[in-house]
Each structure stands twice: as C-alpha cells, then as structure tokens.
Amino acid sequence: MSSTTQTRHDLHGRYPEARSVEDFQRNLAAVHTRIKAACCRAGRDPASVRLLPVSKTKPEPSLRLAYAAGCRTLGENKPQEACRKWEAMQDLTDLHWSVIGHLQTNKARLVARFASEFQALDSLHVAEALDRRLQIEGRGLDVFVQVNTSGEASKYGLTPEEVPAFLQALPVFSALRVRGLMTLALFSSEAERVRQCFVRLRALRDRLRQCAPAGIGLDELSMGMSGDFEIAIEEGATVVRVGQAIFGARAMPDGHYWPGEPKLEES
Ligand SMILES: *Cc1c(COP(=O)(O)O)cnc(C)c1O
What we know:
This protein is 36% helix and 14% strand. The protein is α/β, with parallel strands linked by helices. It has one domain: TIM Barrel, CATH 3.20.20. Pyridoxal-5'-phosphate binds next to strand 8 and helix 9.
C-alpha cells in the first residue's frame, strides 16, 4: 500500500476542543474526508470502514453535542467512567457504548450491564466473567480480541502467538459474539514502524481464518486512531477509533497506553 502516508502524531494534543454541534459536525466531516481519501488510495469502499468516536475523559455535555452531531456509538476506555456516562445519558435511548480499554475481571459485571461492544478482550478469566453476567442479564456482547502487535512491554493484549489457542477456547462463552481483532500500534512518528503493527494484525487474522472455530467471526480489524488511522485503513482496518480529531485534545497524557514513548508521562 501507499508507503508515503505519514502519521499525524504531530497533531497529538493540538486538536482544538469541540464546543458546539457545528464544531463536531465539522470535525466529523473532516475525519470522514480523511477516511475516504485513505480508502481511495487503498481501492476500498468507504462504507467498509466504521468510525468509532472515542469520548474518554470528555464531560457529559461534550458527549451530548457529539450525539446531536449524529454520533450513535461512543468509545470509552474505563469501565467505571463509561458506566457513569451511560447512567447519566439513559434519555438517549439509541446511544450505544463500546468499551475499548483493558478490563479487570471484577469490572466485567459493569460492562455486561450497559456495553454493546467490548474491544479489549485478552483473558479467559474476563471472557468467563463477562459471559456469566451476560447470561444473567439476558444480553449478548460483540467482542474483539486485543493483540499486542508492537512488541512493547505493554501489559495489554495477547501476543500474536497466543491468539490461536485463545480463539479455540471462546465458543463456550455463548453470550460473546467474537467479531475480530483489535490493536494499538506503536505510538511513533515513524510511519513504517506503525504500519508494520497493522500489517501484523491483518496477516494474523488472515492466517487464523483458516482454522478459527465455528461461530468465531474474524471479519473485523479495529485499528487506527487520530494519529494513524489512514495507515490502518490502507492496511485493512474495518473500525477506526478516533477521539481527539473529533472531540479535541485530551488534557491527560496517554503514556499509559504507550509505555514505549518516553515523551509521554505515565498517567
Ligand atoms: C484513546 C483511545 C483511542 C483514540 O485515541 P485518539 O488519539 O484520541 O484518537 C483509540 N483506541 C484506544 C484503545 C484508546 O484508548
């Protein structure tokens, strides 16, 4: 694919705060334009890429503006924060929640209550806890298996080698609808190293397709965020998770997610 596409991590922390419905509409339009351009370069149909707006750390009024601008699913990385926002916005009956961050077993109960999607599955304990609660609630949940494609000493995500056996163990959890794989690329301005993370996820998915158990879907590849989603789309992303380019820069550092990046402090 086009190897000239650069990351936009230089913009990280510089997107202006969206403060009105018009701001959100403009930002969403700009992101959709970037998505279309990347699809065009890759010979892909823009309808094959879903934009997941990520509202983590942003306050409720900001989420309501995003809703007014047309967002119907919001991504949150912390289960408690997400649950709090869900409770406060129950009046928006067609607003759905995607939990995109690491989950501890003892928080599975929360997520089973309100989430329609969970993108960071990386342990059988969590799968079991989610499934048990979902069965009680009579709900199902779309899930993505999180893979660590950067090789960083990140705590989160399975290594690519662990994924085949993990998938074999998932069909017993009948409330979990496995849709595909998710990854966070290396947080780097070196576009080729970022691209390799996305290539690794797609290649893994393509290999796993031959041997995945019945009922385990691998159509979806959730990869790419504000700084690198064009590259992810060029490499096959079907879901891009975009926060700052829609909501504006976050005040808090993201070092937590990118342990390899010395410039970003631990949050
Ligand atoms: C915060 C976050 C994103 C979005 O990052 P932006 O830089 O705001 O676009 C994507 N994925 C995950 C897992 C995140 O935690």
